[in-house]
Design a protein that fits this description.
Helices cover about 80% and strands about 0% of the residues. It is built from 6 helices and no strands. It is globular.
């Protein structure tokens, strides 16, 4: 398999969780805001909108390979932040697994930021 195809598959796999989660959150902003409020996050509705858009738009950008490097850095920071904010209850095995998953995704985004989206991307077409 060619390297550009492998990178495209990697971008697809990295983006799926963000596209689906962002879409789910944005189509249920009330529930999302309620959940964020229960976690003690400030201005729950604004936080819900921002998180929803970061996930949905960021996932779509990664999928398309558009503004890949800055989006990858943003999502890497997002993954680490959400690991510590939402998944730091290490007494709960499910939360520990989600914490580790977030760190692994952050690592994938840092690799993508370092090496770029490859030739099968909007970024390559624009260059």
């Amino acid at each position: 398999m060619s390297q550009p195809l492998i990178v495209l598959i990697g971008r697809i796999l990295l983006s799926i969780i963000f596209i689906l989660a962002g879409f789910s959150k944005i189509t249920n902003l009330g529930g999302t805001a309620g959940y964020f409020g229960s976690m003690g996050l400030p201005v729950p509705m604004v936080t819900a909108v921002i998180v929803s858009l970061v996930e949905l738009v960021g996932g779509l950008f990664i999928l398309a390979g558009f503004l890949t490097r800055p989006t990858s850095y943003l999502l890497a920071v997002f993954c680490v932040a959400t690991a510590f904010i939402a998944h730091a209850d290490f007494a709960d095995m499910g939360q520990m697994i989600n914490f580790q998953k977030n760190l692994a995704m952050a690592g994938g985004f840092l690799v993508l930021a370092a090496f770029g989206p490859s030739t099968l991307s909007v970024d390559a077409r624009r260059a």
